[in-house]
Design brief:
The longest helix is centred in the N-terminal third of the chain and has 19 residues. The chain has two domains: 223 residues, 2-Layer Sandwich (Ribosomal Protein S5, domain 2), CATH 3.30.230; 180 residues, Alpha-Beta Plaits. It is built from 14 helices and twelve strands. With 411 residues, it is of the alpha+beta class. Strands 1, 2, 3, 4, 5, 6, 7 and 12 form an eight-stranded mixed β-sheet that branches. Helix 13 packs antiparallel against helix 14.
Length: 411
């Protein structure tokens, strides 16, 4: 059975119910596979604090791992088969002896496992079969990046079962993104995977996209008398891949006009000097979204300085600026094909009304559907959650805390 000390280290005051959860997961593994698991591993979801849609343009973000995770009991096999049972998503089984792309697996968990195995082997690492039972507390479609948590967890299982835990945080994230881009077939940056892998709150700079730099922040929001409250506005992320892809496609097209691979490499003065030509060639939305990048990419570094200097009011102002820019310029508050469906806009409107100039409110993550993130003064937190739940349904709004550790082996 797992040791209490490991649970206290990871879950702090929540260690006891998490240990009960783990013991139930172990029993579930034994029911499925008639043996005890060799290891128990978890990976957290993430919250984007500031830096909306900057990572894929080699920009900067502040992001954090949160205290909702996926936990897995796992054991190695002596063949190439991976079998996974889960209460959080559909179970599946596949043979990873061949890691070629299988087109019919696109958008499935099996595709992610196959892609991760391929990436590990390309690095000279071992990826063999395993059995696992998983339980997820990172709700799918919640904007907390259940996909990144799952991907990082799979990397963690391969790392700890077959490679002595040697896969680094950055490599964990890069391997996960490779699989999501090339096997799951979803374009994404690296923010979600790296924030989950690192743990804590991190300032991350993606200028060197294959070796991003980062700085850990030794703080949390409770220190400043605020709570991170994330509200699920209820709309589904399903069928939004084209909306997400349009953002990256338009930004890359503008960067390409200047002969650059990403907007981070473009001189803003060149961009603003070419506005008439850019409007004609790419349209107004691409121009507005690129403007968002140039402004938004400056905010994470400023936010880092604010936290280092205990200027929390300045930090909150930057978060609110970020949220306004996402609404006006990035335009990821509602799907272009469904202008009547604006639950995120309603959530932001009501959150700002409740906060009445205090705290902050902004779209969370990819946008178009899902969640908003608010920093709420702790004294107002319970009333805020009650009001948001009254609008969007019980359990829609809840407090999330920063998790200090990323992928973590409990035993």
């Amino acid at each position: 059975m797992p040791e209490k000390e490991r649970f206290e280290l990871l879950y702090a005051e929540d260690w006891a119910p998490q240990m009960e959860r783990a013991e139930e997961l172990i029993r579930e593994f034994e029911r499925h596979f008639q043996s005890a698991p060799a290891s128990l591993i978890t990976a957290p979801g993430r919250s984007e604090i500031i830096g909306n849609h900057t990572d894929h343009q080699n920009g900067r973000v502040v992001a954090a791992a949160i205290d909702s995770d996926i936990m897995a009991a796992a054991s190695p096999r002596d063949d190439g088969r991976v079998t996974v049972y889960s209460s959080g998503f559909a179970g599946f089984s596949l043979d990873i002896s061949d890691t070629s792309v299988v087109e019919t697996e696109a958008y499935t968990s099996a595709a992610l496992v196959r892609g991760i195995a391929d990436a590990l082997r390309s690095k000279g690492l071992r990826a063999a079969g395993f059995d696992a039972v998983m339980e997820s507390r990172v709700d799918v479609g919640s904007g907390l990046s259940s996909s990144a948590a799952f991907e990082n967890l799979i990397v963690g299982i391969f790392s700890h079962l077959f490679n002595d835990g040697c896969v680094s945080e950055v490599d964990t994230a890069l391997i996960s993104r490779y699989s999501e881009n090339n096997y799951f077939m979803k374009p994404c940056g690296l923010e979600d995977q790296l924030a989950s892998a690192l743990g804590g709150i991190s300032f991350i700079d993606f200028r060197e996209s294959l070796s991003p730099s980062y700085e850990a922040l030794r703080t949390d929001f409770e220190h400043y008398g605020h709570s991170l409250v994330i509200t699920n506005a209820g709309a589904s992320h399903a069928d939004l891949t084209d909306d997400y892809a349009a953002i990256t496609r338009e930004m890359y097209a503008v960067a390409g006009y200047f002969g650059r691979a990403a907007l981070r490499e473009v001189d803003p003065s060149d961009f603003y000097g070419a506005l008439p030509q850019l409007r004609r060639e790419f349209g107004d939305r691409a121009v507005l979204r690129s403007h968002h990048f140039f402004e938004e990419d400056q905010r994470p570094a400023k936010a880092l300085d604010c936290l280092k200097n205990d200027d929390f009011d300045g930090f909150l102002a930057l978060l609110n600026e970020s949220g306004m820019s996402s609404s006006l310029y990035l335009q990821n508050i509602y799907p272009a094909a469904s202008p009547a469906s604006q639950s995120l806009g309603v959530a932001l409107m009501y959150a700002k009304k409740l906060l009445n100039g205090r705290g902050s409110a902004r779209v969370h993550g990819g946008g178009f559907a899902g969640t908003i993130a608010c920093l709420v003064p702790t004294g107002d937190r319970d009333d805020f959650i009650r009001e948001m739940n009254g609008l969007f349904g019980e359990g829609s709004a809840r407090v999330y805390r920063i998790r200090k550790h990323g992928v973590f082996r409990l035993f």
